[in-house]
Write a structure and sequence with these properties.
Length: about 180
């Protein structure tokens, strides 16, 4: 039973992509918070010597990059962050700036391509922030950060140029039924 709980805890922590409160993790596992110690201890031991580690405070728990792997991961991120954002990044930023809180599925729909790596890069650069979606707990909303607004010279979203016109165009595009791809 403990191994199964440890595996499920790992899955929930991985899918969350950040920390979970011990209370929330216990709810997800359908156990009492006091029953978390053994599964988390087992998970921590199982992760030893690998690329991930379990980080735990008095109130939260999270998966993180293990110390031995952190240098390689940090070097890869620095290489990635040294590159220009490119047209794809600018398009995603424009969508989120003008549309407001947006799911990745909505961004993908508007752009017509998968934007997972672009969104990940923009998150890493601190230009977007990810928050839970109150309408659907299985997905996140992406919002512009204060740093992004400062970078584009806007004190808030209403200060963006041609905002109303662009919002109307986005709404019209999203409301229009899309043609199926020719095969």
């Amino acid at each position: 039973m403990t191994s199964e709980l440890a595996a499920r805890a790992e899955a929930f922590l991985f899918s969350e992509g950040g920390s979970l409160t011990l209370r929330k993790l216990a709810q997800l596992l359908e156990i009492k918070e006091t029953q978390l110690d053994e599964p988390l201890r087992e998970l921590s031991q199982r992760l030893e010597g690998g690329g991930l580690t379990l980080i735990r405070t008095e109130t939260e728990v999270s998966l993180a990059v293990a110390k031995d792997a952190s240098v390689a991961v940090q070097a890869a991120y620095q290489k990635e962050l040294g590159r220009e954002i490119g047209d794809a990044g600018l398009e995603v930023l424009a969508i989120v700036l003008y549309r407001g809180p947006t799911t990745r599925a909505q961004i993908d729909y508007i752009r017509g391509v998968n934007t997972a790596s672009t969104v990940r890069t923009l998150l890493a650069r601190g230009l977007l922030e990810r928050t839970g979606n109150p309408e659907d707990g299985r997905e996140y909303l992406y919002r512009p950060t204060v740093e992004l607004l400062a970078h584009v010279g806007a004190s808030d979203l209403s200060a963006l140029p041609d905002r109303e016109e662009i919002l109307a165009q986005l709404k019209a595009f999203e409301a229009k039924p899309q043609e199926p791809f020719d095969q």
